[in-house]
Structures are given as structure tokens and as C-alpha cells.
Specification:
heterodimer, A: about 190 residues, alpha+beta, Alpha-Beta Plaits, five-stranded antiparallel β-sheet, 9 strands, about 35% strand, elongated, B: about 575 residues, alpha/beta, six-stranded parallel β-sheet, 23 helices, about 40% helix, globular, binds flavin-adenine dinucleotide, binds thiamine diphosphate
Chain lengths: ~190, ~575
């Protein structure tokens, strides 16, 4: 019995001591998940991430084939290589999931996100905001005497950069769609 | 030509067309139309349980002992939520179930209607898939698809939520042959190149081992047959998880016994020291691996599993083979034979010598007492008196008694052993034994129980009595939550916080109250006679076996230790072990 050498009164012992033997480098991956567009399918996907403790950096979903009732969910997630593999196989075994693509490893891909920025201010700052917007090719979709709403499409990094520049110039609100992504080239 | 019928009629018709003859359930407002149809036919037998959790465990016992899916019918709201524990249990242990729940009418969903619960929401994470059917026209198709999903690939529970208005309304019935089974078609054939790579390793391995699991049972009796052939032809040792017991016969020469936290010394040492581990339908559960970074450090690992998400989840493997155990073993055997049935004979000889040394430790030895019944002794006697029974099934509850049952009872065939492994659900065993007995009316069905677990679903005495199911409840009564008490003793400074079974009932009187037979046994000298009395009684028996209260279950791999750091009982002969242990560690 005493083979355990645990002192009487000790408290911090449990049978779980499960250090993993996998690499712990974190990677960011963009996954495209084609699903049946049916009630609850998004809850299944999101529930998988929350239930198993995976990260969601960004998530977009919309129907892509009205006839075939298919939707495409684009998820940006981070994790160790082993977690990323788990996420893919876990997604793949959800019954209404048809395809899981890891755009990060399946060759080159393009990623775009759309964002709206409300910037309020007057004088120099207002002029500067408009100037930067031009450089980024953001378009003005609403303007009042003391505010603009800019629309910008680009990679998430470009949108981040724009937000950083707008912040000192009176950024009030941002709305982002999350990432939409496709592989390059002719293949699906 | 389509047949029109009501949704409730469709349920019964679809079940019949799926070959279902047994349903476990409990009625309520939201399923009354279906119960009405059940009343008006004779092909499907409905067993009325006493709690919905009992219905699900009974269906699990039915499923595991027959290889067929179990079917459950319960009402909305509390009926559905009561079923959740059982459904989760089935998910963890890969048991195919089709659970039908009633729901409030479609036009009331979302209104907090009487007995409304978001059943698909609640059960989404604990089912393999679930459906809320809002149109009667879709109902029969969904039921057929549900059976397909529950039974193909890695089996599991599915749930269909059927609003009451859908049960009343009429629609077109879709027969199984016409049903759209969706795109869900898991792959069963393993990759040939991977199988060949495994064969190549098998030809040269000096210390190979088969580590088999519940997937062999899931794959069906022919998979067990193939496993036996492969093990015996290669002369490789074989161990199994709790869930895979019976796939390889316990009397087999190459059988090492169960592995894992409470597994046998020889099995764990062999896993630790092997150079080739062949995982056949097991999932590297934490009760098996112990400390992951020290798990079988010197071995190459192959993993046969039908679920890609089981591969590399816990342990990195060198050769993943995704496919059905039966299909893969068939190919493996064929290719291994075609390449000349090669193994490393010299290496194997030494390997078996090592294993025999470990076996000599006799890790399951214990000292029977003349005064009090040792729980191990009770099981040894039970085994001696029942092992030749032509048709024996064992279920268990959860705790020490479960582990002792796994250690001291021998299983010669698959589907004879039902236990709650993944979820570890106390209260599983009694209703499961009912499900097994329903499926095998003439069999000897014994539930090895702890008193605390058994009390969790004791209301099912009513079910056993009503249907005259002669299930034997073999209760190893230590008046303790034994497994919890053991952990408190070993890991929490002997502070026995709430691990007593206080205010226990008089089990003999309890049996009597249900019109069943009660037997109390307190003296080791009476054990055999008492067990025979239990076996000879044609009806349900509650066997209250008062056992040693502070017995611990050994071997045990404690707190995050690797396999070669096992705690052994005081009777194990460790004198010869030390040298070999070191030898294997390298
Ligand atoms: C108190 C307690 C103590 C325990 N101690 C131990 C212990 O000491 N030792 C022990 O072994 N267990 C123990 N368990 C049980 C443990 O928790 C796990 O349930 C068990 O180890 C899992 O068994 P398994 O790996 O065979 O997997 P299962 O849960 O049976 O899973 C089966 C695996 O096979 C795959 N599969 C399914 N069907 C197929 C098919 N047709 N073809 C191919 N693959 C398929 C599945 O995808 C899955 O990966 C204990 C449980 C309790 C409650
Ligand atoms: C529903 C549920 N609650 C709690 C536990 C935790 N637990 C595991 S074993 C155990 C004690 C079981 O006692 P008993 O049935 O008497 O069996 P014994 O260990 O004494 O053989 C407990 C409380 C569990 N497994 N299941």
C-alpha cells in the first residue's frame, strides 16, 4: 500500500498526468467545410469546437449551392499539428459534413475578408482618414459631416493594418465578415 | 405506389422493416400516438422500464449481446432528459442505438410548452447524429437513415425527435430500399500499402503484441474469429482492453489478460516492453496509456481503427490503418500468409520467456479468508460454478467489482460481456442485464454489482419482475463506494469523504417486496451453496454477498505512472520480477 509513497495528508494526487508526446508548435489553418444546409448544422460544427476546446479565430458561413442545399463554412483555427489533424477528422465525421479542406496545406489559396469601419472626427484627422482610405482602396459607403463609413476588402492582415491606422483617427466601430477562402487554380 | 399512413404508423412500420422486434420505453403525452400503434400490433414487443435511463441501458445490453441496434422510445421533456446519461454512455462505448423521442407539436416548439425540452440541442453532443423531423413525409426516410448511421462505421447512438403533430398527420411511407441514406459511407477496407508495411514489421518483430479493443467486438463475430486465427498463427501474445474482452478466448494460450490501470502485470509489462504494438480497434484510452510520454517507449505502433479521429488522438502511431477490423484482419492474414508466414521465431521465444517470468508473479493472487468473503473469492467461485454454462452473459456496474469481474471471470466469446467503460456509469449493469435477458431468454445473465451502483437503478426490479426475467444480481456488498474509497486511501490521505453506503436496505426484503428471490451470504463456507441456489432459481435473484469492506483492487497503475510502475497486491510474488523489469526497460 505504501508503495505509492504518498504522505498522509497529501492532497495533490490524481491519476491524470497526461503530458502529450506531440509537438507543441501552434499553427494557424484555414479550413473550408462543405455541409448540408440544414437546421442545426452550424451548431454541430461550433459545438465540436467548444466541446473539445478548439480555437475559432474566424468563422463564416453561407449557402453556396441553393439547388443542392450546400453551405460552405470557412473556419480559421489555431492549434498544434496534431490538434489540427484532430479537428479535421472530427469535422469529417459529422454526418452532414461532405468535405473538409485544409486550404493552408492543400496548395496556394486566396483569402479575403470584408470589413466596415466607422470613423468619426473633424479637421486634420478627418482628412487623414480619407487619405489613408484612398491608399488602401477602401470606399466610402456613408458619410456625414463628422463621420465616414469605409468599406474595405482584403486579407485579414490588410484589414488589421487599416484598423490600426484608423484607431488614432477616431475609429468608432468595426464590423468584419470573417474570412472567405478558395484554393488557387482551376481545381475544386 | 406509395403507402399513405400516419406518422405514428410509420414509426412502427419502419421499425418492422428494419427488423426490429424489441423496444424499450416509457410512455408520455408526446408519444401517445406511437404507443397507440404499438398497442394494435404484435410484431414488436415493447418492454416497459421504470425509468428512461433504464430503457437506454437495457437497449445497450440488448445491442451489445446481439450485435443488433437497440431501440428506445421515450416521451418529450423529462423522458428525453432522463435518457441522456444512457445515450452518452452508448456514445462513449460505440453502442448502436436508435432513440425515438416525442416532442411537443411543431407549432408549439420554442414556446416553453408543457414538457418541452430542446432535445436535439441537448443531445447533439452525445449522439452520433440526431434529427428533428418536422414533416411526416420525411419521417420514415429519416428512420431508415438513422439505422444506417447508428450501425455503420463506428457505431453509436442516434436520436429522432418527433413532434406530436407529425405523429398524427398522414404522409407517404418510404420503404428502406427507397430511402436516401445520405452520403454517410465510412470506409471499411484498409489501405493495402499500410497493411503490407505492418506485415513487414510483423515478420521481423522480436517482441510484438496485439492490443485489442472494443472495435473487434463492434466489427462482429467474424472479426474475433480472424483475430484468433492471426494470433495463433503468428504466436504473438494478445491483450485486450476492458471493452474487448472475449474477442480472444481467456483460455487461449496466448492470452495475457486485460491491460491498463487495473490490468494484469504481464499484459502491462508486455505493452511497455514490446517492439511492435498492433492496436486492433482500441483507442489508447487514458486508463490504458497512463503517462503518455512514457507509454511503450521502445515500440513501433500500428493502429487499425474505422474512425480516423481515433488515430493519433492520444498516441502517435507509425502505421495508421483506417478500416473495419474484420476487413483489415482478413487482408492482413492473407498478405502475411502469402509472404510466407514469417515471424522472428528466436525473438518470440525469448519474448515468451520474458512473459512467462512476468506471469510467475501471479498478480491476481489473494488470500481467501475463512471469516469474511473476499470479493475476489466470490468471483472465483462464481466463475468456477458458471464458466461451463453453455450460454452465460455477464454485465457489471461500475467500481471495484467491475475491475475484479474483468480480472477473475474468463470470456471465451465476444458479445458475452457488457460493461460501461468510457463513461463509467454506475447504474448501467442492472438494466443492461435486463436487455441481455430479453434478447436471450434462456441464457444465464448475471450482473456483477456493487451495492452503491446497483441502487442507482434499482427501480428496474419492477421490470425484471413484470417480465419474469431471471436476471441474477450478484452484489458484492462492501457497504462502501469501494472504488472511491480506494482512491481516497491511496491518493487522498485516507480521508474517507462521503464514500460510505449509509442506510442500506435489507436486500433480501427488497427482493421479497418485488416478488423476487433474495439471498444473503456472509460466510465464505456458504458461498458455493448460495451461488448454486441463485443459479437454480428460475426467476430474478438479488444476491447480497457481504464482502471484505476495505479490499483494494490490484494491480493498479497509480498517478500518472508508466506501465512498468504497477502497484501489486500483497500476495503477488515480486521476488523474481525486479530483474526482468530492468531488462525490459533498457
Ligand atoms: C472504473 C473503471 C476502470 C477502468 N479501468 C480500465 C482498465 O484497467 N483497463 C481497460 O482496458 N479499461 C479500463 N476502463 C475502461 C476505459 O475507460 C475505456 O472504456 C476502455 O479502455 C476503452 O476501450 P477500447 O480502447 O477498446 O475502446 P472502445 O471504447 O471500445 O472504442 C473502440 C475503438 O474501436 C474503433 N472501432 C469501432 N468499431 C470498429 C470497427 N468495426 N473496426 C475498426 N475499429 C472500430 C472505434 O473507433 C474506437 O476507436 C475502466 C473503466 C472504468 C469505469
Ligand atoms: C453515476 C456515477 N456517479 C459517480 C461515479 C463515481 N464512482 C465510480 S466507482 C464509485 C463507487 C461504486 O461503488 P459500488 O457500486 O458499491 O462498487 P464498489 O467500487 O464498491 O465495488 C463511484 C461513486 C460514477 N462512476 N458514476
Amino acid at each position: 500500500m505504501n508503495a505509492l509513497k504518498i504522505k498522509k495528508g497529501a492532497t495533490s494526487h490524481s491519476a491524470y498526468n497526461l503530458r502529450s508526446n506531440f509537438s507543441d508548435t501552434q499553427e494557424q489553418h484555414t479550413l473550408a467545410v462543405v455541409v448540408d444546409n440544414e437546421a442545426g448544422v452550424l451548431a454541430r460544427v461550433i459545438g465540436l469546437f467548444s466541446g473539445r476546446g478548439y480555437n475559432i479565430e474566424s468563422l463564416t458561413v453561407a449557402e453556396i449551392d441553393h439547388e443542392g442545399k450546400r453551405s460552405r463554412i470557412t473556419v480559421v483555427t489555431t492549434g498544434t499539428p496534431q490538434i489540427i489533424e484532430q479537428i479535421k477528422s472530427q469535422l469529417d465525421r459529422i454526418v452532414p459534413v461532405h468535405e473538409v479542406h485544409d486550404l493552408t496545406v492543400e496548395g496556394p489559396s486566396v483569402e479575403r475578408e470584408l470589413a466596415l469601419f466607422k470613423v468619426a472626427g473633424a479637421g486634420e484627422k478627418r482628412v487623414e482618414a480619407l487619405r489613408i482610405a484612398e491608399i488602401f482602396r477602401a470606399s466610402v459607403v456613408d458619410s456625414t459631416l463628422e463621420s465616414f463609413v469605409f468599406e474595405l476588402t482584403g486579407t485579414p492582415e490588410k484589414i488589421d493594418a487599416f484598423a490600426d491606422l484608423m484607431r488614432p483617427l477616431g475609429l468608432v466601430e468595426v464590423a468584419r465578415t470573417g474570412v472567405a477562402a478558395l484554393s488557387r487554380g482551376a481545381g475544386a | 405506389m406509395t403507402r399513405q399512413m400516419t406518422g405514428a404508423q410509420m414509426v412502427v412500420q419502419a421499425l418492422k422493416d428494419q427488423g426490429v422486434d424489441t423496444v424499450f420505453g416509457y410512455p408520455g403525452g408526446a408519444v401517445l400516438p406511437i404507443y397507440d400503434e404499438i398497442f394494435q400490433q404484435n410484431d414488436i414487443r415493447h418492454f416497459l422500464v421504470r425509468h428512461e435511463q433504464g430503457a437506454v441501458h437495457a437497449a445497450e445490453g440488448y445491442a451489445r449481446s446481439t450485435g443488433k441496434p437497440g431501440v428506445v422510445l421515450v416521451t418529450s421533456g423529462p423522458g428525453a432528459t432522463n435518457a441522456v446519461t444512457g445515450i452518452t454512455d452508448a456514445l462513449m462505448d460505440s453502442i448502436p442505438l436508435v432513440v425515438l423521442t416525442g416532442q411537443v407539436p411543431t407549432f408549439m416548439i420554442g414556446n416553453d410548452a408543457f414538457q418541452e425540452a430542446d432535445t436535439v440541442g441537448i443531445t447533439r453532443p452525445c449522439t452520433k447524429h440526431n434529427w428533428l423531423v418536422k414533416e411526416t413525409d420525411r419521417l420514415s426516410g429519416v428512420i431508415h437513415e438513422a439505422f444506417h448511421v447508428a450501425t455503420s462505421g463506428r457505431p453509436g447512438p442516434v436520436l429522432i425527435d418527433i413532434p406530436k403533430d407529425v405523429q398524427f398527420a398522414s404522409g407517404a411511407y418510404t420503404p428502406p430500399a427507397k430511402a436516401d441514406l445520405g452520403h454517410y459511407q465510412p470506409r471499411v477496407k484498409g489501405d493495402q500499402a499500410a497493411i503490407e508495411a505492418l506485415v513487414a514489421l510483423m515478420e521481423t518483430a522480436k517482441r510484438p503484441i496485439f492490443y485489442t479493443g472494443g472495435g473487434v467486438i463492434n466489427s462482429g463475430p467474424s472479426a474475433s474469429q480472424l483475430l484468433r486465427e492471426l494470433v495463433d498463427a503468428t504466436n504473438f501474445p494478445v491483450t485486450s482492453t476492458l471493452m474487448g474482452l472475449g474477442a480472444y478466448p481467456a483460455s487461449g494460450k496466448r492470452w495475457l489478460g486485460m491491460l491498463g490501470m487495473h490490468g494484469l502485470y504481464e499484459a502491462n509489462m508486455a505493452m511497455h516492453g514490446c517492439d511492435l504494438m498492433i492496436n486492433v480497434g482500441a483507442r489508447f484510452d487514458d486508463r490504458i496509456t497512463g503517462r503518455v510520454d512514457a507509454f511503450s517507449p521502445g515500440s513501433q505502433k500500428a493502429h487499425i481503427d474505422i474512425d480516423p479521429s481515433s488515430i493519433n488522438k492520444v498516441i502517435h502511431v507509425d502505421i495508421p490503418i483506417i478500416g473495419d477490423v474484420g476487413h483489415v484482419l482478413e487482408d492482413l492474414l492473407r498478405i502475411w500468409k502469402a509472404r510466407g508466414r514469417k515471424t522472428h521465431k528466436e525473438g518470440l521465444k525469448q519474448w515468451w520467456a520474458d512473459i512467462d517470468d512476468w506471469r510467475r508473479i501471479r498478480c491476481l493472487d489473494f488470500t481467501p479468508s475463512k471469516k469474511t468473503i473476499k470479493p475476489q473469492d466470490a468471483l472465483v467461485r462464481l466463475e468456477a460454478l458458471t464458466k461451463d454454462h453453455p450460454n452465460r452473459f455477464i454485465t457489471t456496474e461500475v467500481g471495484q467489482h467491475q475491475m475484479w469481474a474483468a480480472q477473475y471471470l474468463g470470456f471465451e466469446d465476444p458479445n458475452r460481456w457488457m460493461t460501461s467503460g468510457g463513461l463509467g456509469t454506475m447504474g448501467y449493469g442492472f438494466p443492461a442485464s435486463i436487455g441481455v435477458q430479453v434478447a436471450h431468454p434462456d441464457a444465464l445473465v448475471i450482473n456483477v454489482a456493487g451495492e452503491a451502483s446497483w441502487l442507482m437503478n434499482m427501480q428496474e426490479m419492477g421490470t425484471a419482475a413484470q417480465y419474469r426475467l431471471p436476471v441474477k444480481q450478484f452484489i458484492l456488498n462492501n457497504e462502501r463506494l469501494g472504488m472511491v474509497r480506494q482512491w481516497q486511501e491511496l491518493l487522498h490521505g485516507e480521508r474517507y469523504s462521503h464514500s460510505w453506503s449509509e442506510a442500506l436496505p435489507d436486500f433480501v426484503k427488497l427482493a421479497d417486496a418485488f416478488g423476487a428471490k433474495g439471498i444473503l451470504c456472509t460466510d465464505p463456507a456458504d458461498l458455493d451453496d448460495a451461488i448454486m441456489e441463485m443459479l437454480n432459481h428460475d426467476g430474478p435473484v438479488l444476491f447480497d454477498c457481504l464482502v471484505e469492506k476495505h479490499e483494494n483492487c490490484f494491480p493498479m497503475i497509480p498517478s500518472g505512472e508508466p506501465h512498468n510502475k504497477m502497484l501489486l497486491g500483497e500476495n503477488a510474488d515480486t521476488s523474481s520480477a525486479i530483474g526482468n523489469t530492468g531488462a525490459v526497460l533498457v
